[in-house]
Amino acid sequence: MAAAMAWLRRGAWGPARRCGLAAGRSYSGGGAYPGVSLSCPLPGVPKAVFAAAEGREQFETRVTLLENGLRVASQKKFGQFCTVGLLVNSGSRHEAKYLSGISHFLEKLAFSSTAQFGSKDEILLTLEKHGGICDCQASRDTIMYAVSADAKGLDTVVNLLADVALQPRFSDEEIEMTRMAIRFELEDLNMRPDPEPLLTEMIHAAAYRGNTVGLNRFCPVENTDKINREVLHSYLRNYYTPDRMVLAGVGIEHEQLVECARKHLLGVEPVWGSGQGKDVDRSVAQYTGGIIKVEKDMSDVSLGPTPIPELTHIMIGLESCSFLEEDFIPFAVLNMMMGGGGSFSAGGPGKGMFTRLYLNVLNRHHWMYNATSYHHSYEDTGLLCIHASADPKQVREMVEIITREFILMAGAVGEVELERAKTQLKSMLMMNLESRPVIFEDVGRQVLATNTRKLPHELCALISQVKSTDIKRVVTKMLHKKPAVAALGDLTDLPTYEHIQAALSSKDGRLPRKYRLFR
């Protein structure tokens, strides 16, 4: 047996084995294998051409500026389907001179009747012919109309996008339906068990009181009846101009997209009239810091067989930087290093179980239900915040734990901890950018803000260069700012804003002691 094994290892079949011949072997039916070599070229068969990784230039984002100021950006991606959309530099931050809630209305009214299409159903039927779906999302600084469909229907898709963005009808019936939808959404927002959207609104309002990104993203209930076609048109006249737009596409040829843009978006007269925006708000975000408190009974938020216990939610934030600054990457690494989540999150290291908010907070303090880090970044400012929730009786202790974590950010950063955060950030970036709609949004937003796009390998290189000294530098700078605080629930034991500010200015992050004469 040993001799047989050695013979096999030496390849003792000789030439027959080396050329891939089926030396004397036969099919189970009895017929012999054909004596053809599998490693030598087959006679009469064309030479095979193998796929190879092409140069990076094949994957660069191409940008073309049209005569009217509209930018057209595209990114190649293999596949039958494409994602194409129109991004507009317009959002709730631009509503200071208007009724708050216009962007919320525009988001809900998107893909309704237009000059060419009589109803939303007609638009959906048109898209169905190309296997398409549509969506509109409004944020604080951008409104995005997007369609995913078969690449063969590109002309139809661009025509539809141009009509939806520039020729909407805004019929009385559609506006009334939108009012109802917004009222329902606002009601749902106040009733849902997860208060994160509400807290995000509150922390922005506290951090940028009454300006730019601090303006309400959701339409206030009192404004739903005031917003009509004339109000919308007066806003669109200023902000829906070609120089504030980007037509972005992923999975299509650039020349084809430019041709469609020229055909459907060049020289088009919008329904509200043409001309450059005369009254555009170019205000730069002014960070103010401050506190917003909402006393609310959270005892019956989620009833049923497994009710959620009554919790008080706190979010503490500090100004970071804009996504255009070099410090944006160190802040992104810091946010990943803090990580966190809910006390019921399960998973291994990839889920963030080794992040600081898990190790130092959730693992040590069993009574805390949540501790999560968030980083919001805009073209002129940014906000790094930590959201925590616990029983109302332990609010003071919870706030002190979070302020201590902010102070510890400026301390020593372990090499293993830093490398893990950088690797996790790169991993998350690359995983997200496998999705076509995510690539589309990345292309559109970057081109809208900078007229160009940093490719994933460039971002990964910048992440790799982050050192522990960079983390310490950005945190030290951040801790000199006034905090922004949002609090929701039973706030009986909430420390004062001055005490939270004092804790973030101290060496150990502890709140000033409270001395009571009577207990």
TrEMBL record:
Show which residues constitute the signal peptide.
none
Q: What is its main location?
A: mitochondrion
What Pfam families does this protein map onto?
Peptidase_M16, Peptidase_M16_C
Taxonomy, superkingdom: Eukaryota
As for subcellular location, the record says: Mitochondrion inner membrane; Mitochondrion matrix
Describe the location of the Peptidase M16 N-terminal domain by residue ranges: 71-220
- Membrane listed as a keyword: yes
Per the database record, which ranges form the Peptidase M16 C-terminal domain? 226-425
Q: What is this protein called?
A: Mitochondrial-processing peptidase subunit alpha
Per the UniProt record, the source organism is: Caloenas nicobarica (Nicobar pigeon)
Starting at the broadest rank, the lineage of the source organism is: Eukaryota, Metazoa, Chordata, Craniata, Vertebrata
